[in-house]
Automatic annotation (TrEMBL):
The organism's place on the tree of life at top rank: Bacteria
Protein name: Aminopeptidase P family protein
Creatinase N-terminal domain residues: 7-138
Keyword Hydrolase tagged: yes
Pfam families with a match to the protein in the record: Creatinase_N, Creatinase_N_2, Peptidase_M24, Peptidase_M24_C
Length: 597
C-alpha cells in the first residue's frame, strides 16, 4: 500500500470481494464538508490528489478523477495519468461518465454517508439508462483496505462567547423554533458542522483550518435540542454553556435516534444532509420536508457584534500582512527566499498578535509558474525559489476568535514585464468595478460576476473560478449561501440574493499556465447604499481588507480617473488603519507604497 498503484489495485480487489463493479469516491465527510478531517481524506489516500474539491470513480478496467477549473493543473501534477483519466466539472459529471463507462448490468457502489440524496437520484437514473445499478454500501471499501487510517479527532469543544457571537445559543434556537412552527414542522436536522457550531456557540478543532467539531444536532419546535458528539470532547464548561435545553448524546447514537422520529415532520437540508439521513428518516416513517437548514441564512447575515469583530480581525490581519510584505520587499531581491520560507514567515507575523487560532486554509504561496495553479499548496517537492523578474502570489488568511480573514496579493519581484502589468491592471480594474458596484436589493451574485471579468474579456482572457465566496465569523472561510460567480458554474449559491450583513470575497484573477498567476482579493461587507432620487432600495460593498496593492504592477495609463481615485482612497485607508500598528522601517515602507498614484 506504499504506492497509489497498489492502493488502486487493492480497491479493485475489495470491490470484487464485495460483488461490486465500481465505486464512487467523493472528497467530503458525513457532513458534506468542503474541508475534512484526515480520517475522511479517502480521495487523497487513493489518488494522491491534494485539492479541496474533487471526486473519483473506479471501475474494473478504468478510473476517472473529476475536478473543476481551479485544479486543472494541480490534478495532473499529483495524479498518475497512466491509471486515471482527467475529467473537468461542470463540463461532465460522475453520473454522465458512469452512464457511458459502467459495465452493462453492473453494480456501482456508493457510501450513503458521503453523498446527497439528489446526487443518488441523478446517478441512479443515469446508470439505469445503462442497465446498471447504484448500490449503497454498509462499509466503505476504502476503509476496509486503508490499514493505517487515522481516527477522527477527539479534540475538546470550546465555548464561543456571546461577546464574539453577538447572540446567545438559546436565542438562536428560539428563532429556529419559530421558523419550525411557521413551517409546520417538529424538528430540523443540522448536519453541517458550521451550522452546528454557529447554533450552539461552540467551536472545535476537528478539521484543519475550520474551528468545528464532528457532531450532529436536532433542533425542535420547543427550542430544545439534541446534540450528538463524542462525550470525551465535552468538558464541564461546555455542558454548563449548553444548559438544560440541550440534551447531549454520543455521536454514534445519531442514526439510531433518527429511527425514533416516526410520525414527526422533520426538516432536512437536501444540499447539506447526506442520503443516509434521508434514508433513515424515511425508514422510520417520518414526514421529511426538504428545506435549507435554518442556520444557513442567519449565519451568513452577520450581526453588529460579528461585523465589529470582523473589522478588528481584518485590521490586525492587515498589519501582519503589511509586515510580511515589507519583509519580502527587503529579502526577496537578495535571493534565498522560497515558497515555504515565505509561507512560514507570514504565519509567524500573524501569530505575533497572540490572537491567531489557526490559518483559515493552507496558504497558497506560489512563485512564478506555481502562481498559475489556482489552489496551489506548496510541498517540499514543489517548493520554488522566489526569483527576480517573476511574480509571487500569496493567498492566505487567519482564524481569530473575532473573525476569519482571506486575502490575496500578487507581488512583482524585480521589474515586471509589460504583459504582467497589463494583466494585473485588467484584474485590478475588475476588482475595483465590483468594489464600487451599487445594485438593487434582490440582486444575485451571478448578476455581478461580469463586472470583475469585463476587462479581461475585452482582451480575450478569463479565469476559471468564481469571483467571490461567503466567509464565516470564526468559522468556514468558504461559507454559503451567497456567491459571486457565473451562472451554472457548478457550485450552489450563485442564485442567492445578496443581503446586507453578508460578507463576500472580491477576487478576480488571471493565470498564464507555466509562467505566472495574478489574483487580487479583499473581503467586502454588503451594506445599504443611499442614492439621491433612487426608486429602489440599494446595496453596495464596504471593503474590509486593508493591505497595499503592488503599485509597480499597475499601468496607470489604463486606469480611469474614477479607478485611480478609488485606489488612492483605498491606500489612504490602509495607512490609517494599518499604519498605527507598525513601527520604524515597516511603517515608512507602508506609507511609501501607499502614496497616491
Amino acid at each position: 500500500m506504499s504506492t497509489y498503484d497498489a492502493r488502486l489495485a487493492a480497491l479493485r480487489e475489495q470491490l470484487r470481494n464485495d460483488r461490486l463493479d465500481g465505486f464512487v469516491v467523493p472528497l467530503t465527510d458525513e457532513h458534506m464538508s468542503e474541508y475534512v478531517g484526515t480520517y475522511a481524506q479517502r480521495l487523497a489516500w487513493l489518488t494522491g490528489f491534494q485539492g479541496s474539491a474533487g471526486a473519483a470513480a473506479v471501475l474494473p478496467q478504468e478510473a476517472a478523477i473529476f475536478t473543476d477549473g481551479r485544479y486543472t493543473l494541480q490534478v495532473r501534477d499529483q495524479v498518475d495519468g497512466r491509471h486515471w483519466s482527467f475529467q473537468s466539472v461542470p463540463q461532465t459529471s460522475i453520473a454522465d461518465w458512469l452512464k457511458d463507462h459502467a459495465p452493462d448490468g453492473g453494480r456501482i457502489g456508493y457510501d450513503p454517508w458521503l453523498h446527497t440524496k439528489d446526487w443518488v437520484t441523478r446517478a441512479r437514473a443515469a446508470l439505469a439508462e445503462r442497465g446498471a445499478e447504484l448500490v449503497a454500501v454498509h462499509r466503505n471499501p476504502i476503509d476496509a483496505i486503508w490499514a493505517d487510517r487515522p481516527e477522527p479527532s477527539n479534540a475538546r469543544l470550546v465555548v464561543h462567547p456571546d461577546r464574539h457571537a453577538g447572540k446567545s445559543s438559546a436565542a438562536k434556537r428560539q428563532d429556529m423554533a419559530a421558523w419550525l412552527k411557521e413551517a409546520k414542522a417538529d424538528t430540523a436536522v443540522l448536519s453541517a458542522l458550521d451550522s452546528i457550531a454557529w447554533t450552539f456557540n461552540i467551536r472545535g478543532q476537528d478539521v484543519d483550518h475550520t474551528p468545528v467539531a464532528l457532531s450532529f444536532a436536532l433542533v425542535h419546535a420547543d427550542g430544545t435540542a439534541d446534540l450528538f458528539v463524542a462525550s470525551e470532547k465535552i468538558g464541564d464548561d461546555v455542558r454548563q454553556h449548553l444548559g438544560n435545553g440541550v440534551r447531549v448524546h454520543e455521536r454514534d447514537a445519531f442514526e439510531p435516534f433518527l429511527a425514533q422520529l416516526g410520525g414527526r415532520t422533520i426538516v432536512a437540508d437536501p444540499e447539506r444532509a447526506v442520503a443516509a439521513i434521508f434514508d433513515a428518516l424515511e425508514a422510520a416513517k417520518a414526514k421529511v420536508v426538504p428545506k435549507r437548514d435554518p442556520a444557513v441564512l442567519p449565519k451568513a447575515i452577520k450581526n453588529e457584534t460579528e461585523i465589529g469583530g470582523h473589522r478588528a480581525a481584518q485590521a490586525r490581519d492587515g498589519a501582519a500582512l503589511a509586515r510580511f510584505l515589507h519583509w519580502l520587499s527587503v529579502e526577496a531581491p537578495k535571493g534565498g527566499i522560497d515558497e515555504l520560507t515565505a509561507s512560514a514567515k507570514l504565519h509567524d507575523f500573524r501569530a505575533q498578535s497572540g490572537n491567531l487560532r489557526d490559518l483559515s486554509f493552507d496558504t497558497i504561496s506560489g512563485a512564478g509558474p506555481n502562481g498559475a495553479i489556482v489552489h496551489y499548496r506548496v510541498t517540499e517537492a514543489t517548493n520554488r525559489p522566489i526569483e527576480m523578474g517573476t511574480l509571487y502570489l500569496v493567498d492566505s488568511g487567519g482564524q481569530y476568535p473575532d473573525g476569519t480573514t482571506d486575502v490575496t496579493r500578487t507581488i512583482a519581484v524585480g521589474r515586471p514585464s509589460a504583459e504582467m502589468r497589463d494583466r494585473f491592471t485588467r484584474v485590478l480594474k475588475g476588482h475595483i468595478a465590483l468594489a464600487r458596484a451599487i445594485f438593487p436589493e434582490g440582486t444575485r451574485g451571478t448578476q455581478l460576476d461580469v463586472l470583475a471579468r469585463q476587462f479581461l474579456w475585452a482582451a480575450g482572457l478569463d479565469y476559471a473560478h468564481g469571483t467571490g465566496h461567503g466567509v464565516g465569523s470564526y468559522l468556514a472561510v468558504h461559507e454559503g449561501p451567497q456567491r459571486i460567480a457565473p451562472a451554472g458554474a457548478g457550485q450552489a449559491g450563485g442564485d442567492e440574493p445578496l443581503r446586507a450583513g453578508m460578507i463576500c470575497s472580491n477576487e478576480p484573477g488571471y493565470y498564464k499556465s507555466g509562467e505566472y498567476g495574478i489574483r487580487i482579493e479583499n473581503l467586502v461587507l454588503i451594506v445599504p447604499e443611499t442614492v439621491e432620487g433612487a426608486e429602489k432600495k440599494l446595496l453596495g460593498f464596504e471593503t474590509l481588507t486593508f493591505a497595499p496593492i503592488d503599485r509597480t504592477l499597475i499601468d496607470a495609463g489604463m486606469m480611469t480617473p474614477e479607478e485611480l481615485n478609488w485606489l488612492d482612497s483605498y491606500h489612504t485607508k490602509v495607512v490609517e488603519i494599518v499604519g498605527p500598528q507598525l513601527e520604524g522601517e515597516a511603517k515608512a515602507w507602508l506609507e511609501e507604497v501607499c502614496r497616491p498614484l
